[in-house]
Fold this sequence. Notes:
Strands 1-2 form a two-stranded antiparallel ribbon. A hairpin with a 4-residue loop joins strand 1 and strand 2 (84-85).
Amino acid sequence: MAINATGTPVWGQILMIPIALIALSIARHIIKQLLFPNKDEPPLVFSWLPLIGSTIDYGIDPFKFYFKYQKKVSTVLTFHTIGINVCQYGNIFSFVLIGKKHTVCLGLEGNNFVLNGSVGEISAADIYRGLTLPIFGKDVCYDCSPAKLMEQKKVRWPFNGQGTTFLTNYSF
Length: 172
């Protein structure tokens, strides 16, 4: 076993570099969240680990996760022996899930944001294009102009004019 002049084994020094880099990355992540939050974005759920973020907490029970962080409390951060009281986000907040930031819109405030949002703020095409393109091909569904999409959304029933009467009379 090789030992250097300080008495530390060489393999110990080699392991110190990645451990120090991981520790610095975690420290930077925590400091950035606590001291430099982005005021132009919804509040970000606090997490200890970069990239992993809230993945574990969200993965255990997504609905519980949403409603846990939706609650509002009067204090911004309260330190306890086990961590930070993070229930201060309200109806619209963001969290990191496997390295990607996701924004949650809950309650009346979130409902108004989603339903009244402009195409520049929220776009179903951006979300669904990756799913529909391999299935339906180019220039179909969300891979076309908004006018063509609205034309494609019109339902063309073979029994036009009969309305719900046709469906009501149809039985197994």
